Amino acid sequence: MARIFITFFLSVLYSTASFSQITIDDCYQKAHSNYPMIKQYNLIDKSEEYSLQNAAKGYVPQITFSAKASYQSDVTKIPISVQGIEGLSKDQYGLTMEVYQSLWDGGSVKSKQEDIRTSSEITQKNLDVAMYSIRERINQLFFGILLMDAQIKQNDIYLDDLKKNYDKVSSYVENGIAHKADLDAVKAEELKTMQNRLQLLHSKKAYIDMLSIFIGEKIQSDATFVRPSLVYSLENGINRPELSLYDAQIQNYNAKRQAIKASTMPRIGLFLTGGYGKPGLNMLDNSFSPYYIGGVKLTWNISSFYTQKNDKRMIDNNISNIQSQRETFLLNTQMDIAQKQSNVDSYKEQLQYDDEIIALRNSVKRSSEVKIANGTLSGIDLVRDINSENMAKQDKNLHEIKMLLEIYNLKFATNN
């Protein structure tokens, strides 16, 4: 039982620890699943399904009902009198039902279905672009939290260093080596550092609250945000969803081109017309009677030839416009990539000097601690040198976080 309890306790402890570990990839996934627009994907699929089903109804028999009642000023008459044959009435009535079965529609239904599919794909790709933009906002929040974490930790180290020096200076004052003003200078810097810590904590909380709303989960203030590795590689090519959107738009215009071609084709089908009226098909019978007519029907609307040429020109113009938008997007993205790559390289080069600067600032600080112990340095100068070392360490943290942010912005720009 003890072994089982220990195993259960460790598993719970491990799962809790794992849950408090937050990575940027987890934030991407949860923000994507939580964003309200995600529901539109299912709505788009349903809309496409219903539209395709409606378009396919063009292959089933088409049924038309009609009824009429008319009165005319004159009717056809036989100039001779024949026994048993009455003249037609001036009031006439008819009820008909026509069934038409398409045999060949020139590709009209097929082109309509393709137009529906490509239009639906455009809507989905537009949604992909909108959903993809979430990543950029997650980058700003996640790395903002990492920056606040790094500054809080450095602030605590700085505060601890100030407290140690305050105790030292306090003893120097008691021994008459230092003045009370030196002690006040260290204390003032200590209070200012505590004040800065509160500001950093509030900023971190604001970032966490916004990120919690994005991912749809409450993030605890003690959660650990995992810093990504600085190792990266810039792969060739741009795989942004905007490119798929441009492709879908071109495919849609090609589908519309097929619809134009289909509109110039003749239609062939079978028809069956049944009716009941006065008169029927027998014009010599002036009574109500049923009738039917069946056969093959060909229709050809040649008026579509009048506008076909201009319609195709408009489509070609629209495709050229989309290709121009695509080229502009690629050009702007390539310039953006070049700028971000330059920023990454800049921070990488700056990091090469940070450790050396920190070591030198630390050496100056230690020398200042010795000098104030000997009574040859003021407390203000000591605080200045301690702060200079602290700022050097903060600069390193800032360069690391900004470099990480630029790397992930670079990944966003290429989607690689």
Would you summarize the structure shown here?
This protein is an alpha+beta fold and 416 residues long.
Question: Can you walk through the features of this model?
Answer:
- It contains 9 helices and 6 strands.
- By secondary structure, it is of the alpha+beta class.
- The chain folds into 2 domains: 20-37 and 124-265 and 306-414, Outer membrane efflux proteins (OEP) (Up-down Bundle), CATH 1.20.1600; 64-72 and 85-104 and 266-299, Outer membrane efflux proteins (OEP), CATH 2.20.200.
- Strands 2-3-5-6 form a 4-stranded antiparallel beta sheet, with no helix packed on it. Strands 1-4 form a two-stranded parallel sheet.
- The longest helix has 70 residues, at 304-373.
- It is rod-shaped and about 150 Å long.
| Secondary-structure class | alpha+beta
> What is the end-to-end distance?
50 Å
Percent strand: 5-15%
| CATH-defined topology of the largest domain | Outer membrane efflux proteins (OEP)
List low-confidence stretches. Answer: 4-19
Average pLDDT metric: 87
The CATH level-2 architecture of the largest domain is identified as Up-down Bundle
Q: Please state the oligomeric state of the protein chains shown.
A: single chain
Number of domain units: 2
Write the CATH homologous superfamily of the largest domain: Outer membrane efflux proteins (OEP)
Overall 3D form: rod-shaped
Helices and strands in order, then pairings?
Layout: H1 2-19, E1 21-22, H2 24-34, H3 39-56, E2 62-71, E3 91-104, H4 108-132, H5 134-174, H6 180-215, E4 224-225, H7 241-263, E5 267-278, E6 289-299, H8 304-373, H9 379-414
Parallel strand pairs: 1-4
Antiparallel strand pairs: 2-3, 3-5, 5-6
Helix pairs in contact: 2-5, 3-4, 4-7, 5-6, 5-9, 6-9, 7-8, 8-9
